[in-house]
Predict the 3D structure of the following.
Amino acid sequence: MCGIIGYTGSQSAAPILLDGLGKMEYRGYDSAGIAVLHEGEIEVEKAQGRLVNLLERTDNGKKPVGFTGIGHTRWATHGAPNDINSHPHVSGDGRFAIVHNGIIENYAQIKEELAAKGHVFVSETDTEVVAHLIEANYSGDFKAAVMKAVSRLEGAYALGIVCADFPGTVFAVRQAAPLIIGLGIGENFFASDVTALVSYTKNVIYLDDGEFAEVRPDGFTIYDSIGRPLEKPVSRVAWSIEAAEKGGYEHFMLKEIMEQPAAVKEAIAPRVKGGEIKLDDFELSGEDLRDINKIVITACGSAYHAGCCGRYAIEKLTRIPVEVKLASELRYEDPIIDEHTLMIIVSQSGETADTKAALEEGKRRGATTLALVNVVGSSIARLADHVLYEWAGPEIAVATTKGFTTQLALLYLFALYAAGKLKRIDDFEYARLLGEICSLPKRIQNAIDMNSAAAERLAEKYHGSTSMYFIGRNTDYAVALEGALKMKEISYVHAEAYAAGELKHGTIALIEEGTPVIAVCCNEDLLEKTASNILEVKARGAEVLALSFRENRDIIAHADDVLFIPRTETFFSEAVAIVPLQLLAYYVARDNGCDIDKPRNLAKSVTVE
Ligand code: M6R
């Protein structure tokens, strides 16, 4: 949601904090701020709006001067995004400054108590309360004050704290929000995300819930929730800083669309050995799988759509019933999940609060849990019984692209793996379908090559539209769902997806002369059915843009415009079919002058429910 960072060492802190905030700006971008310790004082600079405003205010990091500091980039939860509500927040006596990612649920009660004791608050945030609470518990021992204050907090939080009396020391506290310690030489860091750290160090420690760290230039100590020192393993970040930079592209989103063939290959290739699928540490026998009577896929947003896509392949190939559930709904549903349920949790960031809560609910009810996650060491990855990493590399654009297609690759691999173990398909079909999965990177590349120019050209025609309807059946419907989400979240064009056969049950009333209908027609078994729906909307004046393969002459004849993909096995067609729709959304957003990588009101990782 928000991004936090801390630095202590021998270099000037402000430029490092600002650089790190730049790398994490996708986590939230409605205001930003830094606090730097200098000669027993804390100096704070904050600015509403994008980080560029803070850069201006700090003269590109020339001020505040000092070697220890904390920084924050915000996605507002409590209080409007203005200078006052921006972090860092300072205690009443000015001795403590704090940055926070998450939500303090009981802040109102604590605020009332502190106000009764004379504390005066200047912001509307939950975070300011924590600064005052630390002040109230301070009698010269920084660590003790932090621990006492934290023991009162309820909710999700990653905190970074500095104290004017302790030059060179920053405290970092984690409870249900990501926090990583970066280990340098003569300098150390913390951040919400490794992208903020990789320019400086690749050696990191992932904190767990309830842990906190005292970070100094010459070392660090990690403590458990009752203050006992802990030994934690040091992990090495596998990718370089170039992976988190634009590399000549105008936007991260376009770069990430183009990276999909390589990313999907990285997700698939290491898991195919000697003509068989090996799912890392996730080993299930036919007997284990026969004991599973239901698979529940749970996720949010695009990851939920990935689940909708994967369901078709899993059910068709394994004949195990699959339910795809929005994590934000499942957690409050009293779901029918037990020890015979396999729960697949899908999350690019591995930090989505609702998805994590759904995973916890599944575990409580005895399900076996398998997480499909991109961010290494993230909460969901560590909480699930098993994890398959997407290996897509850092995804910076708020709108997911390669995160989505690599999720599909893993779901397809799982479907075929399970079908093989259950002996639901013969060896020949297994080998054929595995060949199809392995050819996805090439087909995705073809889809990029076939559509880049066409999507750019069609965007000129469609970008002024106020509403668009995406239709498709079965696997194509799942693609339509994701295509519509891509369109609305980055171009702000109202876009809705419908199962093509459902349109005439009400929504067709909205079709009028010139309404764009994007018809996904890549499911070989249902082409004629979708063709009829195209005719229905055309008869009411719709402008139809069809997405299909060249061999489908029928649909080409009916549609006003066509985008093509290479003909692809239906089970796995979603990973290819989504690519032209990602490109179309990208170019429509560009033509509409939108901030493509950081769409309004959104944040990359949604760590509040
Ligand atoms: O990190 P996650 O995969 O758990 O994120 C889930 C959704 O928040 C995410 O897919 C969101 O819908 C994106 N903005 C879609 O582009």
